[in-house]
Amino acid sequence: MEGMDVEDFQTFYQENLGLIYHFVYSKVGNRQEAEDLTSQVFLKVVRSLDFMRDPRSMRTWLFRVARTTIADYWRIHYRGATSSLDDLLEAGRECPVDEGAALVNNSAAELVQDILQALPERDREVLTSRFLLNLSVRETAVRMGLTEANTKVVQYRALQRAARLEGLTTKAVHS
Question: What is the C-alpha separation between 41 and 152, in angstroms, rounded?
Answer without folding.
Answer: 28
